[in-house]
Design brief:
The complex is a heterodimer of chains A (306) and B (275). In chain A, 79% of the residues lie in helices and 0% in strands. Chain A is built from twelve helices and no strands. Chain A is flat, with a radius of gyration of 24 Å. The mean pLDDT of chain A is 84. Chain B is mainly α and 275 residues long. In chain B, α2 packs parallel to α10, α5 packs antiparallel against α8 and α6 packs antiparallel against α7. Classes of the chains: A mainly alpha (306), B mainly alpha (275). Chains A and B meet through α1, α6, α7, α8 and α10 of A and α3, α4, α8, α9 and α10 of B.
Chain lengths: 306, 275
């Protein structure tokens, strides 16, 4: 078990290291913040050099990168190039909002996809199954930002039930969360159906039914538990994509999370903020997958040898 | 089940064929490329006249023409990016799966790295560097997606190389490359074709979201994402500008998803239950 743990953690650390290196390198190719800060106005070359010095951009790449990683490890993410706000503070505001949106969407998606997927599996080949299948394929084909726009059009503009953008209270959370949840449900429901079909043909299900257990107990207590592992794996694998969707949807609804922060940072070449955003999100994805891997290793010894 | 299967194929094929034919026929259907402006006919409502069946946009361009022309961008980006990723990935996967060793380890670790990157953010960072350009976007997608094909092909190769016909080919002294391309590759194509179909759909979605966010292709070129980005500002007053391009994306992607779904079952003789 220790060997397995060490190996998984080593891989995770390596992945985060490569990600930060890539990001730091890419971000530096993306243009000169000194020029962005001053605008195209009348500044001398000396002014630009001074600004770069002030921002620490005159140092060699290795020194900048070491400073960035060292800072991340000690919780000091540097200061934003725009206005000098500590990056940690910006991320501290944005990250909880992104996490809130992500987990509310995930919970909504599971609440919809588990009963629907089980229903489809139980009624395999019948009209309920076909309907769920068609609807999920349609849901899979929605561009997330367009679905968001359509929800705004209906519930924000036409009916005026919900605020079209911003983050004031629960009512602002509904539309972004529902957008992400609909698309996530469309993919998850198919997986629940497939794994459920496999599980339902197992002998212990027959035993549970033969014992005279109620169908609800058979499905939701005995069968669902055994669907949990593929379902959790799948969510782990999809987590990167999920975060990507959240980032885009945040932008459409002006939800002030990590996505909005990152987009503004790209537009203004705000290196420290952009680096912190990508690093934090990538680390989150790696950690979630690491936890899932370790979780399996503890539950199921066969997984450890992989 | 089989009835639905064939329905799935007919619907998917009809949607995809329709979009492809329209995209190819744009020079004859709309010789102006959807660029003709009529400032006296701004934001006309849809379904009212034959001249502008889907209405007009904020500067009086025919929305139907622009939606049809926009198909070219989506299809070009979708098909070329997937073709590039498939070529790179298949070659890498073949060699990694057959010879294993260092390259195999590098490949798998690189796959871990890519899995952890929030693709949209990386794409936006890169378009900020490279500029919004269709060719660069296609290249970027190919470079970031080849790993999926490499992993898939690698997995097939690893099971195929233990099979008798491959061992027979080795026994009669064929070289590795001949075995890989003549004997292993043809048997590993099924899942690759399925993945390609679904990835074209996915890349059409990605391109449109990036363009919508201003980080995809040049906003001057008529594309569905670009049109929706305009439509967003007119949601209050002119819903059609933000509805029809999105519907076009959805129908195209739905067609590809239906085909991919059908192919997955059609190419896999063992699957009775559809995933």
């Amino acid at each position: 078990m220790t060997g397995f743990l060490v190996r998984r953690i080593a891989i995770a650390v390596f992945v985060v290291f490569v990600v930060t290196l890539l990001v730091a390198w890419a971000v530096r190719l993306s243009g000169d913040p000194a020029v962005m800060l001053t605008g195209a106005g009348n500044v001398t070359e000396q002014d630009l050099i001074n600004i770069r010095k002030g921002l620490g951009l005159d140092r060699p790449f290795s020194a900048q990168y070491a400073g960035f990683v060292g800072g991340m490890l000690t919780g000091d993410m540097g200061k934003s190039f725009m206005g000098g706000t500590p990056v940690a503070k910006l991320v501290g505001h944005a990250l909880p909002l992104t996490l809130l949106l992500t987990f509310v969407s995930l919970a909504l998606a599971l609440l919809m996809s588990i009963p629907l997927g089980i229903h489809a599996a139980v009624h395999k080949g019948r009209w309920a199954d076909q309907t769920i299948r068609i609807v999920s394929l349609v849901g899979l084909s929605f561009p997330n930002f367009w679905l968001a726009l359509m929800l705004v059009l209906v519930f924000g503009v036409a009916l005026r039930w919900l605020p079209p953008s911003g983050a004031d209270g629960v009512s602002s959370l509904i539309m972004p969360a529902v957008t992400i949840a609909i698309i996530l449900t469309a993919t998850t429901v198919r997986l629940v159906r497939t794994t459920m079909l496999e599980t339902l043909s197992a002998q212990y299900i027959m035993v549970a039914r033969a014992k005279g257990l109620r169908e609800v107990v058979v499905l939701y207590r005995h069968a669902l538990r055994n669907c949990a592992i593929p379902l959790i794996t799948y969510i782990g694998l999809q987590f990167g994509g999920l975060i990507g969707g959240v980032v885009v949807v945040e932008r459409v609804f002006n939800w002030p999370g990590m996505g909005s922060l990152a987009f503004d940072a790209v537009a203004s070449r705000d290196y420290p903020v952009l680096q912190a955003c990508v690093t934090v999100l990538a680390t989150m994805i790696v950690v979630i997958n690491l936890l899932i891997d370790i979780g399996y290793g503890m539950i199921d010894p066969r997984m450890r040898s992989r | 089940m089989t009835r639905w299967r064939s329905l799935e194929f007919i619907l998917g094929a009809a949607l995809v064929a329709g979009v492809v034919i329209l995209a190819l026929a744009t020079p004859w259907l709309f010789p102006d490329g959807g660029e003709a402006m009529d400032l006296s006919a701004r934001l006309l409502r849809p379904f009212l006249s034959w001249a502008h069946p889907l209405g007009t946009d904020p500067i009086g361009r025919d929305l139907l023409a622009r939606v049809v022309v926009g198909a070219r961008v989506s299809l070009t980006v979708g098909v070329l990016s997937v073709a590039g990723a498939m070529l790179l990935g298949t070659i890498a996967g073949l060699f990694a799966g057959y010879y294993r060793g260092v390259w195999d380890i590098v490949l798998m670790r690189w796959a871990d790295v890519q899995l952890a990157l929030p693709f949209i953010l990386v794409a936006i960072t890169f378009t900020a560097i490279l500029g919004a350009d269709m060719g660069k976007l296609i290249g970027f997608m190919a470079i970031t997606q080849w790993v999926q094909y490499a992993r898939l092909v690698r997995a097939s190769v690893m099971t195929l190389r233990e099979r008798e016909f491959v061992q027979a080919a080795e026994a009669i002294g064929l070289r590795g490359r001949a075995i890989l391309f003549r004997h292993i590759l043809p048997n590993a194509t099924g899942p690759v074709i399925v993945l390609m179909t679904l990835n074209i759909a996915n890349n059409i979605l990605l391109e449109s979201s990036l363009t919508f966010l201003g980080a995809g292709i040049d906003p001057m070129i008529p594309s569905w994402g670009g049109m929706l980005s305009d439509g967003r500002s007119y949601l209050q007053t002119a819903w059609w500008v933000g509805v029809f391009p999105g519907l076009a994306i959805m129908l195209t992607v739905l067609g590809l998803n239906l085909l991919g779904d059908w192919l997955r079952d059609a190419l896999d003789p063992t699957s009775q239950a559809s995933p």
